[in-house]
Design a protein that fits this description.
alpha/beta; Helicase, Ruva Protein, domain 3; globular; transcription; 477 residues; Rossmann fold; 5-stranded parallel β-sheet; 4 domains
């Protein structure tokens, strides 16, 4: 490709392409970060200089693979890519970008523009498709338009996610999706293991949403008995039940105009699931003991560590409520899948803990950080917080040594589990024991457990236990 051709008169755009046209261009966004991708080094250099002369910050890549590596290190505001490149062309690069950073605007340039390529590109979501030689003003207008329409989220605009410390590409993908979905009012279900930060993500979504200046109200649906949970959510009238000496407005009304976060929604009793579904469908609630309905304007975010699709198929969670809550699903990876975040989180947490308790503590020794990074973290970020707190409390030196981290990790492993974890552990051990006794005979095992076969199978499914593995020759230890 001849770099000089960029100065030639532009061709008419193919149908389906995005052109700036005659209207005045959007206000230039100088300082924006553009990733420029082209396998023609001379053209890459020329176009890079042109963009920098306009005040843009430019990173260059000579291939699609190099561009993806760059994206993993730093998110730009826009990608400008050639279409025809060896190994990975511009459309393949766009598709990879969509998987990694959905919503990042991409403009494709080509000296071989055609109607089918333009239509295919725009149908897939490419922001702009410009044919070479491209006019300087037209290119800048397309870039300014893309930057103006892209969701805010460049460097310096991260206050909404300030509580979430990460450099993990997987977490960045989740946060990019969270930032995009925050702008709408759709219901979001956050899934992930206990302690992975589901409420932090819900708060971040609220802060990035148009409801940010209204209340964010959270409740753990598994922490309260059914009647008390119903009263907390929907409120109650005076005299609705014994002890209801005054009216209680409930959390739906407390969150009016804002966001209601339903944590551990998978533990909500079935009767309450019916009432919640009705509230979401009708956009109004009826407090306990009241005959009047109250209109509500609340966005619902929910979270669970359970497999709700499995609970739904087992009759433990309503299918209609599942689809109402799970419009968008965001899965938080466990800490063991983002090991690169452990040193980053540890440094952040130790600074916080030291500021509260022991200002002389400066951090972890390199050996201590290596041990933290190599640990499995079954309790996820919550467990890491506990380990850091213990280390700060017990250290007498500015740098926390490896031995103290090992001691804190051992203490965590032997710590008293929560009631829910203890019950789950007992159930699983009990089920395995009776299946071993009966050599995988579910009927006999259910009889020993005092459960009918249906309930017993539900328990086995919940703990992902396959009874066939306990039959002679089944391979179960």
């Amino acid at each position: 490709m001849d770099a000089a051709r960029l100065h030639a008169t532009p061709r008419p755009a193919a149908p389906g392409t995005r052109r700036a046209g005659n209207p005045a261009p959007a206000e230039p966004q100088t300082g924006a970060h553009i990733l420029l991708v082209d396998d023609d080094v001379s053209l890459l250099r020329l176009l890079g200089m042109r963009l920098e002369s306009r005040g843009f910050r430019v990173t260059t890549a000579e291939s699609g693979a190099e561009a993806l590596r760059s994206l993993s290190a730093q998110r730009p505001d826009l990608v400008l890519s050639d279409l025809r490149m060896d190994e990975m062309d511009g459309l393949a690069l766009f598709q990879a970008i969509q998987r990694q950073l959905p919503g990042l605007p991409v403009i494709i340039l080509t000296a071989h523009g055609s109607i089918p390529e333009a239509v295919s590109a725009t149908q897939q979501g490419v922001f702009g498709f410009l044919t070479k030689p491209v006019d300087r003003d037209e290119l800048f207008a397309a870039i300014d338009e893309a930057l103006a329409q892209a969701p805010a989220g460049g460097e310096g605009d991260d206050a909404w996610r300030a509580e979430i410390i990460t450099r993990s590409p997987e977490m960045e993908r989740v946060l990019e999706q969270a930032r995009m979905v925050a702008a709408s009012d759709v219901s979001v279900l956050v899934t992930g293991a206990s302690g992975s930060g589901k409420e932090l993500l819900a708060r971040a979504i609220h802060r990035a949403s148009p409801r940010a200046d209204k209340p964010f109200v959270a409740i753990n649906c598994g922490a309260l008995p059914e009647q008390l949970l119903e009263s907390e959510l929907f409120g109650h009238a005076r005299g609705a039940f014994t002890g209801a000496v005054s009216e209680h407005q409930g959390l739906f009304r407390a969150a009016e105009g804002g966001t209601l976060f339903l944590d551990e929604i998978g533990d909500m009793p079935l009767p309450l699931q019916v009432k919640l579904l009705r509230a979401l469908q009708e956009r109004q609630i009826r407090p306990l003991g009241s005959t009047a309905s109250v209109p509500i304007n609340v966005r619902i975010l929910s979270a669970t560590h359970r497999d709700l699709s499995q609970a739904m198929h087992q009759g433990e969670f309503r299918e209609d409520l599942y689809y109402r809550l799970n419009v968008v699903n965001l899965r938080l990876p466990p800490l063991k899948e983002r090991a690169e975040d452990v040193p980053l989180l540890a440094r952040h947490l130790v600074a916080q803990a030291a500021a509260r308790h022991k200002p002389f503590v400066k951090g972890f020794s390199p050996e201590a950080l290596n041990l933290l990074a190599a640990s499995a973290w079954p309790g996820n970020v919550r467990q890491l917080v506990n380990v850091v707190e213990q280390c700060v409390a017990l250290t007498s030196s500015p740098m926390i040594p490896e031995a103290l981290v090992a001691q804190a990790l051992a203490a965590e492993e032997s710590a008293l589990p929560t009631f829910s974890d203890a019950r789950a552990g007992f159930e699983r051990s009990y089920l395995i024991k009776v299946l071993k006794i009966t050599e995988g005979n579910v009927t006999q095992a259910a009889r020993i457990a005092g459960r009918n076969r249906t309930d017993f199978y539900k328990l086995l499914n919940r703990h992902e236990i396959e009874p066939g593995a306990f039959k002679p020759g089944g391979g179960q230890a």
